[in-house]
Every structure is written in structure tokens, then in C-alpha cells.
């Protein structure tokens, strides 16, 4: 079975790969829900991360359904056998389920910058963190999502780029702008700092619903991004890959975004038993903006139920 996911001129061909899964992450959870962290078994070699499978594990499912489940992100409330093409968000592997809801951003306010996880706002509103290499297009994506230029500018102010910046959206959930990693000019000491405090945030922040890990589609897969994805996977931090700069269709040098994305996906499939959600975006053309917001709404609403 070959699944073609199309978006405008980008086509990603996801063919099944026969890859030994002995080193795959068995504990990845794409959805986080405080209650379900206790009641739903985490993925193991004989079960799946996806909460929907708690009802289907004893059922025999077809090879096509098994394959769809290994490449698609199927949210709670959706039965794999009932999947139709129009349930998959364009330009992504994300199935939209019953938890998707109001997704547009009406108001956003900067709340605070924190140097440590324990200094972050102390309430239990759900938060979605945005992470990526320096220059990946993080500020542009945040501006594109919230449609306000000053928001991401706040976190670009000198002194705030190395902090955890919380923005309250619609008074009900947070976007968290995390420091970019991989600064070419940053000293080793500063790099170590990044790991220590950002990792502390991932491991200790109970209200963290998901991390949007931004991957620059205009360059080939970067080791530092793969290391980051693998670390999040190993530590059971739910993530969504957000490919940025997908408008750069004609590469001036090197490969095109669709080739870079395919290469990245292939490496990820070698390490992850269940492929995390992914989506193509462009802050220039607005590609994927509404789709990403809808996906974020289903993650939040499931967490918040
Ligand atoms: P940050 O360091 O991750 O916050 O990255 P920025 O948002 O500042 O973007 C870095 C560079 O990439 C800037 O020159 C942006 O104009 C450019 N850029 C960001 N997003 C896109 C995009 O979607 N398409 C294109 N073509 N360029 C982008």
C-alpha cells in the first residue's frame, strides 16, 4: 500500500519500510492527557501508544489499516477502520477527530519570561511549546499563527532569547516559545545551559500538551534536529514535526523541500515505532496555518476534557 499525501505541489510518498524496530522508541505518546497518563498503557512492543487502540488491540485489523496506523496520526475517538481521506488534514499525516474544535486565535498576551521550569506560570492551563534550531523560522511561524508581529518580537528582545517565554492565548491556553538550539556562535557553556534548563522544562512541566518541533524543510536532515527528536521520543514527550519554509520549492542549491522532508521522515521511521504527527507549513504563504491550529485544538481539547 502506498499512501500519497498531497498539498498543492508537494507530494510525500509514504511507502512502508521493512525496518527492524528493535531500537525504536516504545514509549512515545503523541497525545498527553493527565488522566490517561495513568489509565492508558504506554506503547510497548506488543501494544500501541495510541489511546484508540485500547479498544482495538484484541481485534484483528487489516494490513492496510495497520500500515495506515503506522504512518498516520490517529487521535482518540477515531476508529482506524472508519478512516476516510477527508479526515486527513491536507499536507500532513494528521487525522482530525472529534476533539478538534475552535482553533482561531482571538487574543494573545505576553505573560512572562522564565529562566527555569519552576519559574513558569503556576496554573494548569494547557500549553503547547515551540522549539527548533535557530533560524528555523520559529518567530515567523508564531507571528503567522497569532497574526501579530509584536508577539514573537518580544521573545527576540536581547536577553529573552535564552528564556522560556509564555504567551496566553484566548485566556485559556499558552503558546510557549522555547530558546532556539544550535546557535553557531554560542559557546559550549551556553549550549550546555540550553540542554540543562530546556530539558528540565520538558521533564517537569505537567501542563505541557505537546511540543511543536520545527524542522527547516529547505535543508537536508540535520543531526541536531534528529538528536532533539530522539531525545523527546526517548523521554516520552509528545511532539509534532512542523516542517517550515515549504514554499521554497525551487532549491537554489541542494535538494528541494519535498526531498528533504522525505529523507527526514525515513530516518524518523527507523527510530519511532509510531510516526509522530507532522505537517507542512510556510509562514510566507500561510500554508498549513489553519490546519496546524486545528491540530493544536484537538491536542488541547483532549488534554482538557
Ligand atoms: P527563528 O530564528 O527561528 O526565529 O527564525 P526567523 O523566523 O527569524 O526566520 C529566519 C529566516 O527564515 C528569516 O530570514 C525569515 O524571513 C526566513 N523564513 C522564516 N519562515 C519562512 C518561510 O516560511 N518561508 C521562507 N521562504 N522563509 C522563511
Automatic annotation (TrEMBL):
Residue stretches spanning the membrane: none
Record Pfam families: MMR_HSR1
Native source species: Camelina sativa
Gene field: LOC104713732
Domain EngB-type G stretches: 124-302
Top-level lineage group: Eukaryota
Name the UniProt record assigns to this protein: GTP-binding protein At2g22870
Metal-binding is among the record's keywords: yes
Known cofactor(s): Mg(2+)
PANTHER family per record: MSS1/TRME-RELATED GTP-BINDING PROTEIN, PROTEIN, PUTATIVE, EXPRESSED-RELATED
Similarity section: Belongs to the TRAFAC class TrmE-Era-EngA-EngB-Septin-like GTPase superfamily. EngB GTPase family.
Keywords associated with the record: GTP-binding, Magnesium, Metal-binding, Nucleotide-binding
Amino acid at each position: 500500500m502506498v499512501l500519497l499525501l498531497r498539498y498543492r505541489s508537494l507530494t510525500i510518498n509514504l511507502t512502508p519500510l521493512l525496518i527492524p524496530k528493535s531500537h525504536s522508541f516504545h514509549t512515545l505518546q503523541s497525545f498527553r492527557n493527565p488522566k490517561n497518563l495513568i489509565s492508558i498503557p504506554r506503547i510497548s512492543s506488543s501494544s500501541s501508544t495510541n489511546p484508540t487502540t485500547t479498544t482495538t488491540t484484541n481485534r484483528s485489523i487489516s494490513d492496510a489499516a495497520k500500515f495506515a496506523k503506522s504512518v498516520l496520526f490517529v487521535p482518540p475517538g477515531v476508529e482506524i477502520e472508519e478512516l476516510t481521506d477527508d479526515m486527513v488534514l491536507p499536507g500532513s499525516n494528521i487525522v482530525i477527530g472529534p476533539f478538534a474544535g475552535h482553533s482561531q486565535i482571538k487574543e494573545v498576551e505576553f505573560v512572562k519570561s522564565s529562566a527555569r521550569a519552576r519559574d513558569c506560570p503556576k496554573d494548569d492551563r494547557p500549553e503547547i511549546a515551540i522549539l527548533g534550531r535557530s533560524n528555523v523560522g520559529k518567530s515567523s511561524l508564531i507571528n503567522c499563527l497569532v497574526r501579530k508581529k509584536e508577539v514573537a518580537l518580544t521573545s527576540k528582545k536581547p536577553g529573552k532569547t535564552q528564556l522560556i517565554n509564555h504567551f496566553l492565548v484566548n485566556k485559556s491556553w499558552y503558546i510557549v516559545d522555547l530558546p532556539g538550539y544550535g546557535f553557531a556562535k554560542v559557546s559550549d557553556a551556553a549550549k550546555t545551559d540550553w540542554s540543562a534548563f530546556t530539558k528540565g522544562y520538558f521533564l517537569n512541566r505537567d501542563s505541557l500538551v505537546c511540543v511543536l518541533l520545527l524542522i527547516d524543510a529547505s535543508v537536508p536532515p540535520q543531526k541536531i534536529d534528529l538528536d532533539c527528536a530522539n531525545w523527546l521520543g526517548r523521554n516520552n514527550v509528545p511532539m509534532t514535526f512542523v516542517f517550515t519554509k515549504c514554499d521554497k520549492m525551487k532549491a537554489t542549491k541542494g535538494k528541494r523541500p519535498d526531498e528533504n522532508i522525505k529523507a527526514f521522515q525515513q530516518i524518523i521511521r527507523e527510530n519511532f515505532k509510531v510516526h509522530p504527527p507532522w505537517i507542512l507549513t510556510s509562514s510566507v504563504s500561510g500554508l498549513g496555518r489553519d490546519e496546524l491550529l486545528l491540530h493544536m485544538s484537538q491536542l488541547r481539547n483532549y488534554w482538557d476534557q
